[in-house]
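Title: [Solved] Tetratricopeptide repeat protein 3D structure

Original question kept below for reference.
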Amino acid sequence: MAGQAVTAEMVEQQYETREVAFEQLIEGDAAAAVTRLEAELEANPGDPAILINLGSAHAQLGNYEQAEAYYQAARDSDEEYQLELANGRWLDSRDAARLALASVEFEALASR
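Solution (posted by the thread starter after getting help):
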């Protein structure tokens, strides 16, 4: 999941699009993604899609502790909705955060 970003599509009662730096993450430009996502997080604190993608960006940069913190924040967020993953699969935001957290914890262990 660390390499798995969520797209800008999410569902509650209807579709809503939000900027979540999907293109930068897919292109491997994690530093640009962090900059964009931190600005988005200020306007939308607690948004699981932004938090998950911030975690993914930090995981790409090798900042596993920061990635874990963002994934945990997404998992624990008061907001919850369905996210479309980069592979087209739809998943509850808390489940996506749990999956990402397990993945980054594994990567952190493997890199030691």
